[in-house]
Amino acid sequence: MIFFLTSFVVSVMAASTPLLLAATGELVAERSGVLNLGVEGMMLVGAVTGFIVGHYTDSAALGIVGATFGGAALSAVFAVLTLTLLSNQTAAGLALTIFGRGFSSLAGAAFVGIKGPVLPRLSIPGLSDLSFFGPTLFGQDALIYGSFIILAMVWWFLNRSHAGLILRAVGDSHDAAHAIGYSVTRIRFGATLFGGAMAGLAGGYMSLAYSPLWAENMTAGRGWIALALVVFATWRAGWLLVGAYLFGAIMYLSLYVQGLGVAIPSALISALPYIVTVVVLALIARDRRRIRLNQPACLGRSFAAGT
Question: Considering only CA atoms, which of 88, 120, 113, 96 is closest in space to residue 44?
Answer without folding.
Answer: 96
